[in-house]
């Protein structure tokens, strides 16, 4: 009877343990863009973007052409890959890995946190204004089976965010 109880506990534990499915796709992110606009106009547009959207900064250095933004949530703009590794929502800014829990009411676990900091670096290089947009310190977490403990999952930028920011400050 004791062996049967141990067998039942082992089956229960392993049938509910999460299965992590890593991100398969390779995302070549373009982070540097050339602008035909003068440096001062691009800088002013970056400040306008910050002010209009209420983005909080950690560093604002005109001398270095750097604006570093505090952590923001990308939870509403995240996607995952399908079974073949293709991104499901091509407009999403972040792709996250998947977690499945066999036997759970909802087998696929959805991330509860997807956050990152980001920065803009503006400089003149070979007579052209260059704008670099970088999503940094990106992380995502999920909860499995209603546990309070957060489990880290993989997350990568899709490049959509960087292109969007460039378009906004290069208009």
What would the keywords be for this entry?
single chain; 171 residues; alpha+beta; six-stranded antiparallel beta sheet; three-stranded antiparallel beta sheet; 3 helices
Explain what the structure shows.
By secondary structure, the protein is of the alpha+beta class. It has three helices and twelve strands; from the N terminus they run H-E-E-H-E-E-E-E-E-E-E-E-E-E-H. The strands form three sheets. Strands 2, 3, 4, 9, 10 and 11 form a six-stranded antiparallel beta sheet that branches. A three-stranded antiparallel beta sheet has the order 1-7-8, with no helix packed on it. Strand 3 and strand 4 form a beta hairpin. It is elongated, with a radius of gyration of 21 Å. The relative contact order is 0.23. The model is unreliable at 4-14 (pLDDT under 50).
**Radius of gyration based on Cα positions:** 21 Å
Percentage beta strand: 35-45%
Pattern of helices and strands:
HEEHEEEEEEEEEEH
**For the residues shown, what is the average pLDDT?**
87
Number of helices: 3
As residue ranges, the low-confidence spans are: 4-14
Relative helix content: 10-25%
Structural class: alpha+beta
**Major sheet, described briefly?**
6 strands, antiparallel
In whole angstroms, how far apart are the ends? 74 Å
Shape type: elongated
User: How many E-type strands?
Assistant: 12
How is the topology of this model organized?
Layout: H1 2-15, E1 18-21, E2 32-35, H2 39-53, E3 57-61, E4 66-73, E5 78-79, E6 94-96, E7 98-101, E8 108-109, E9 111-125, E10 128-142, E11 151-153, E12 155-157, H3 160-169
